[in-house]
């Protein structure tokens, strides 16, 4: 296992019909998606615990199903990494070391503050999922399909968030 990327391929095998080089590239792409999904589920729980103000309960209750679905997504991605001969590493220190974005900065805050910030989080996660899908199209149809299905749910979750911060003219706050 390499220090720079704890999920580097370590098994002496990968999926039948896939080259070791392609497997390594797929593992690296999936590792970044796994890190992003773990970060997203923790951010959603943080918001769940710290959102206040009008519409608090609606937002509070909207977030838990998102957390559960994203936990399942994370598990699927981690298991795909293992299937390809990689090692999915989800320990806190390893996650922080591999994260390329800033930490979520809103503490206790109003619904509109959190959802405006969460919309930006979804912008990043969803755009990065889409970029990974494009790269996976050349490498691994199975992993591409996994992320494509996930992106449909992630985009719907972002739509739920945006419905709370959208004006009647279709403009987003923030």
TrEMBL record:
Keyword Transcription regulation appears in the UniProt entry: no
Record-level Gene Ontology MF annotations: DNA binding; ferric iron binding; oxidoreductase activity, acting on metal ions
Gene3D superfamilies xrefs: 1.20.1260.10
Entry keywords, A to Z: DNA-binding
Keyword DNA-binding: yes
Domain Ferritin/DPS: 27-166
Family: Belongs to the Dps family.
Descriptive protein name: Stress response DNA-binding protein Dps
Annotated organism of origin: Idiomarina xiamenensis 10-D-4
């Amino acid at each position: 296992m390499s220090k720079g990327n704890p999920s580097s391929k370590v098994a002496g095998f990968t999926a039948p019909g896939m080259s070791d080089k392609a497997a390594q590239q797929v593992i690296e792409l999936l590792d970044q998606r796994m890190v992003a999904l773990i970060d997203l589920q923790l951010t959603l729980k943080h918001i769940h615990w710290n959102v206040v103000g009008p519409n608090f309960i609606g937002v509070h209750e909207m977030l838990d199903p998102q957390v559960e679905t994203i936990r399942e997504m994370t598990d699927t991605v981690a298991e795909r990494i293992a299937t390809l001969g990689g090692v999915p590493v989800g320990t806190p220190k390893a996650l922080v070391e591999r994260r390329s974005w800033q930490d979520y900065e809103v503490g206790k805050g109003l619904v509109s503050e959190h959802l405006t910030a969460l919309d930006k989080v979804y912008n990043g996660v969803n755009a990065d999922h889409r970029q990974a899908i494009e790269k996976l199209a050349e490498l691994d149809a199975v992993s591409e399909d996994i992320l494509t299905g996930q992106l449909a749910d992630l985009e719907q979750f972002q739509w739920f968030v945006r419905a709370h911060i959208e004006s009647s003219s279709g403009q987003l706050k923030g």
